[in-house]
């Protein structure tokens, strides 16, 4: 059906966290300064909320910039006990 990626790699997670902290800090600082200049704390809160929304839109979805270095997982090894027991035991026929 649809092939929607739902993951980020480890470096992408770090990049997303760093970006969200920068955006929220920047908007918080600008909001605080602007709110102080016009003497309206509500403007500070609105600007901070705008920064949180922007950071959320840019960092929560797994955008392709956060999936540049995927992990190469090892293939699973077969369990020796399961493999051995299934090949050693002959199948028994049911008698009616």
Automatic annotation (TrEMBL):
Record bears the keyword Magnesium: no
Record-linked InterPro entries: Spc1/SPCS1 (IPR009542)
GO CC terms: signal peptidase complex
Major location (coarse): endoplasmic reticulum
Gene Ontology BP term (one): signal peptide processing
Domain of life: Eukaryota
Pfam families for this protein: SPC12 (PF06645)
Keywords: Endoplasmic reticulum, Membrane, Transmembrane, Transmembrane helix
Localization (cell): Endoplasmic reticulum membrane
Membrane topology: Multi-pass membrane protein
Protein role: Component of the signal peptidase complex (SPC) which catalyzes the cleavage of N-terminal signal sequences from nascent proteins as they are translocated into the lumen of the endoplasmic reticulum. Dispensable for SPC enzymatic activity.
Family affiliation: Belongs to the SPCS1 family.
Protein name in UniProt: Signal peptidase complex subunit 1
Organism (species): Anopheles stephensi
């Amino acid at each position: 059906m649809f092939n929607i990626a739902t993951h980020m790699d480890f470096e992408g997670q770090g990049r997303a966290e760093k970006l969200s902290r920068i955006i929220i800090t920047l908007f918080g600082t600008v909001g605080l300064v602007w709110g102080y200049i016009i003497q309206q704390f509500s403007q500070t809160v609105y600007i901070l909320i705008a920064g949180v929304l922007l950071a959320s839109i840019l960092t929560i979805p797994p955008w392709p910039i956060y999936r540049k270095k995927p992990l190469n997982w090892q293939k699973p090894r077969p369990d020796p006990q399961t493999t051995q027991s299934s090949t050693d035991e002959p199948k028994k026929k049911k008698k009616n």
